[in-house]
Write a structure and sequence with these properties.
LacI family transcriptional regulator (chains A, B); LacI/GalR-like_sensor (chains A, B); six-stranded parallel beta sheet; 13 strands; homodimer; 2 domains; alpha/beta; Rossmann fold; transcription cis-regulatory region binding (chains A, B); DNA-binding
DNA sequence: TTGAAAGCGCTAACAC
DNA sequence: GTGTTAGCGCTTTCAA
């Protein structure tokens, strides 16, 4: 079965030039600088290319020569379906993708995840053909961060960890935002408050897979700064109101599935039957908690106040009282900082807004 | 401000070798073949590398030399947040990412979207440093497909278009699956049926942005084969039951936002007040339609039967009668076929299952 | 165990 | 408008 002009060896720019008896430069120009040669010659080059099955300049070779990979690497802590199951994370990626697209850059999802060992993951980071990295919401002790830094490429950290030397940072003031929300809850009259958080540390807590009362050790030294900040914000508000932050019931949800919030709410309720408010560090947690409360016949906000964090569409639709943060902008901004490649690390704090929905009211 | 050993010029493998007065081969081996040199020497190489700030072999140069980019390109028709807003698409990407990860390959989201012109998008495809492409659910006349093919790399098409020469294909038998579902609906006694579809063509329909009764022209020659197949499946079932497929009310939803299904349902109801069943070519459409019906006080399934397609988690949770397709597997399989790089195009049809939920019943 | 030589395919200076 | 030259940084025979 003769397959049309398939030379045994793939055509290259050089072979095309030889065929046409012109220089490689001219062929290169035909692709990259159309104005540098006559239209006829260019046409002749392009048509010969088609005839020879030359696919155009090899991207890798070009990258080597120009020192630009044309892509941005995205490092996420969690496996993809996991991290993207949170609409806020998805919005972030969408924003990042948008800015990459506008800059003509690809977005490389670096193959790091639970299927591979840390050394394999590091190898993937070291082997990524990119011009810079975006690190999304990693723990302070993320095992891949050192490899990213080793590359000596521009890095933008989103959300956490804060203070990575030489890297830009984009995020929000989690502590202040959460404090503002907590102040509102306290103002409503709540005194018995529980806080449902996402994981505080990379290491699994001892007590099994489900949500559990947060371990003091984990609370004291959380690897995920964002959670720590949000907890801190609630404590700040309590302290400012003359309440004892130590009385706050904190439940950590290590794995986040669609029902984690409900399970965490259950743990909180069991731990303290007098609770009147459930504050959550993520909307997905709050929404799930609300579902659970409804199933248990606990009315929101009449019997229980529930708040979230993020401002994902479903939360706003359902009237959740929450902090809205600009997730898409975060992604966009992160990309822009990378594409700027000014070299100077930038810290950018985006604004948030407390949205008073229909899920917070005075305690019964 | 003296920044630690920052040579004016970035260290390279060659400069490291020169510094150590050993050959480049040996340095290369220190990174790639630890067994090819003594542990001490390797240690010396690595520590000198650290001292000089050498980040390890340049990925791009290595790719040029080894002829392997170490990444797979993913071409999606829709902008990211758009295509990922469908959980089925997200599952697909998760599956693909998983197989890439297992193969140690990165996943490059190619910068193609509405922010860039077609020629810019094509340039991005031509410039992507990848070893192969996955094309996800593109239209028959997708403007980037030719560029993908031009690259002469392994290609796996997912869902549509079918029959791309030289490319593998992974998908399901949409027609048979939809037919089976329609047979069930007809069997229940439904005669007045509407079908709500996703977009049938890349070009916007004339009648404005919202869902509209499908244009005959678009129906006759849909650019999105999957929709065509699913429509065909319903028609097959009707014809087999002695019904006139021409009586089917078809509403096309060009843009899909979270409320599109409801809007489409409204169009269908207005067009035919006697409808007793709303079949949808996607769960997201069906779920939104159900919300709309509830808001209108139309009881499902008592007054209206609703069916979906895909089997996304929320649909199953809500008891939607639908076709479950293995979206994650689709992604995984697509990746595997690419990593196989056998060269021989493969066609792989995954199995589906009709799930009889709580949203289909006999007509009132 | 190490080294020398030979490119991978391309583009950027610079000359003509 | 076109060609010549010189690498980009690396790996891979092959030979020592």
């Amino acid at each position: 079965m003769p397959r049309s002009p398939t030379p045994r060896r793939r055509a290259t720019l050089a072979s095309l030039a030889a065929e046409l008896k012109i220089s490689r430069t001219t062929v290169s120009n035909a692709y990259n600088r159309p104005d540098q040669l006559s239209a006829e010659l260019r046409e002749r080059v392009l048509s010969t290319a088609k005839r020879l099955g030359y696919p155009g300049p090899d991207p890798v070779a070009r990258s080597l020569r120009t020192r630009r990979a044309g892509a941005v690497g995205l490092l996420t802590t969690e496996p993809l379906n996991y991290s993207f199951s949170d609409p806020a994370a998805l919005d972030f990626v969408a924003g990042l993708a948008e800015s990459c697209e506008a800059a003509g850059q690809g977005l490389l999802l670096v193959a790091v995840g639970p299927n591979r060992s840390v050394s394999e993951g590091s190898a993937a980071v070291l082997a990524a053909g990119v011009d810079g990295f975006v690190v999304y919401s990693a723990s302070d002790d993320d095992p891949y961060l050192p490899s990213v830094l080793q590359r000596q490429l521009p890095v933008v950290v989103v959300d956490q960890p804060k203070g990575v030397a030489g890297a830009s940072w984009v995020g929000i003031d989690d502590r202040a935002a959460m404090r503002a929300l907590a102040e509102y809850v306290i103002e409503l009259g709540h005194r018995e408050i529980a806080l449902l958080t996402m994981r505080l540390d990379r290491a699994r807590p001892p007590g099994g897979p489900g949500p559990a009362l947060a371990d003091t050790g984990r609370l004291r030294n959380p690897a995920f700064g964002v959670q720590a900040e949000r907890i801190g914000g609630v404590c700040d508000a309590m302290a400012a109101a003359g309440l004892d932050p130590g009385a706050l019931t904190i439940v950590e949800s290590y794995d986040h599935g669609p029902a984690s919030g409900g399970a965490a709410a259950e743990v909180a309720l069991r731990s303290n039957a007098n609770l009147t408010a459930l504050m959550c560090t993520a909307d997905v947690l709050a929404l799930s908690a609300m579902d659970h409360l409804r199933a248990r016949g606990i009315y929101v906000p009449g019997q229980m106040t529930v708040t979230g964090f993020d401002g994902v569409p479903e939360a706003l639709r359902r009237g959740l009282t929450t902090v809205v943060q600009p997730s898409v902008d975060k992604g966009r901004r992160a990309g822009e900082l990378l594409h700027l490649r000014s070299g100077v690390p930038v810290v950018e704090v985006l604004t948030t807004e407390v949205v008073r929905g229909r899920t917070a009211g005075p305690p019964a």
